[in-house]
Amino acid sequence: MTESLLAREGGTARWTCPFCVLLCDDLSVRTSASGASLELADGQCASARVGLARFSATPSAATPLIDGNAAELPDAIAEAARILAACRQPLFGGLGTDVAGARAVYRLACETGAICDPAGGTALMQSVRSLQDRGGFSTTLAEVRTRADLIVCLGELPAAEAAEFLARCGLGEASLVPQRHVVLLGDAAAAQAELTALARHSGVTTEVVPLHGDLFSTVALLSALLARRAVRSAPLPLAALAERLRAARYAVIVGQTGRLPAQGALIIEGVHRIVSTLNSTTRAGAMWLGGGNGAGTVNEVFTWLSGLPLRSRSGPAGLEHEPLCFDAERLLADAAVDGLLWISSFDPTCAPPDSPVPLVLLGHPDLASPAARVGSVFIPVSTPGIGSAGHLFRADGGTVLPLVPVYRDTLPTLAEVVGSITQDVRASRAKAASP
Question: Tens digits of per-residue pLDDT, 181-194?
Fold first, then answer.
């Protein structure tokens, strides 16, 4: 196993955080003064602090459960395999895992014909559907940091899944980009303090451009202005933003897929029309922040293994992708599935939805309570970047970062557990098919 950080570096160690889509690798982790938990030794990221506080300073000794009762790991694996082998149409949800876990889940999904949809699948599908329908222009964190002189934040400043995004953009680093302008296309009320703080950086200016109607109308109007179409009574701030975008050396438009309204894929398509127009005369890109808790990583893995993103299955008709019909909430509400495998290795608050179907729950030790019922199995698994090594895709999609464990865990990895379940499912079906 990869050597643990704290054991190797003597109490405080540099660490790559797995708790948001930015995968910040410039943080340090240590044992808290009480010795009971983990904490950041430096850095201000709220996501990292909250994530670390959910783990003790020593490896967990959590126990698997069958029907809410303590069980041995081999028995829990066998029962999970029995439940999934008996399903005619299982659903795999949550999907909070890393690259190795995603590869194992894909093999089990193919074996059982499962439909796979992550927690927050609707938000993830916004960008996926837009890419499928119209294509897009993406960028990377490195390009934003070293090139972008204009950053337009769509609707609100990045928060929640990527609270440190603007800090990662190199604001104030004059050696990279001497002057940067940050624009909030939305309501300033909730972001005024942060905008003021950003403007204190050397060479950084900020601006708020109010929406003209809703976000759909505003993006459409901005697209029309950039294409130099005839626009009647265009708001002056929006017209000025169009001119600023044309004049920028490298403009980046940033949005959070989880904060877009229903049918947000139309907004994403509108943004890419803007970027396409700009790229005829200058340089521009878009970055969509989403896919946290491993969802983006699992989507990347499924896409390279099958050629299809999530909300897909390998069923009787071969590979099928249904971005609307294969919505986990819809399937459970319509009683269209007869078993649920829920995975959440990183976040104990990401619990499975209430449903009477048989449940196999693999995740953080604190997730045991939803499986405390008849017809359920709970197997605690290690969290990559805390108790085991792993890899995750960063928000910009083209970068995979390694995760080194803070300590050596006593819990199995998700890949190990799912691999054992897959073997048992295959053995069960082979036995049933034999004469």
Answer: 999 999 888 788 88
On whether the CB atoms of residues 20 and 44 are closer than 8 A, the answer is no
Place of tokens 């048992």: 424
d(CA 432, CA 435): 8
**DSSP string over 263-331:** TTHHHHHHHHHHHHHHTTTSEEEEEEE--TTTHHHHHHHHHHHHSS-SSEEEETTEEEE-TTTT-HHHH
71, 64 Cβ separation under 8 angstroms = yes
What CA–CA distances, in Å, run from 210 to 73, 185, 218, 313, 359? 56, 6, 9, 42, 46
List the alpha helices (DSSP H) in 12-135: 46-53, 73-86, 99-112, 121-134
Residue 246 scores a pLDDT above 70: yes
pLDDT for 382 equals: 96
d(CA 228, CA 434): 70
Q: Give residue-wise pLDDT tens across range 357-367.
A: 999 999 999 99
Write down the pLDDT at residue 1.
Answer: 38
Q: What domains can you pick out in the chain, each with its CATH number? A: 5-53 (no CATH), 65-120+295-387+409-433 (3.40.50), 126-289 (3.40.228.10)
- CA–CA distance, 148 with 182 (Å, rounded to integer): 10
pTM strictly above 0.85: yes
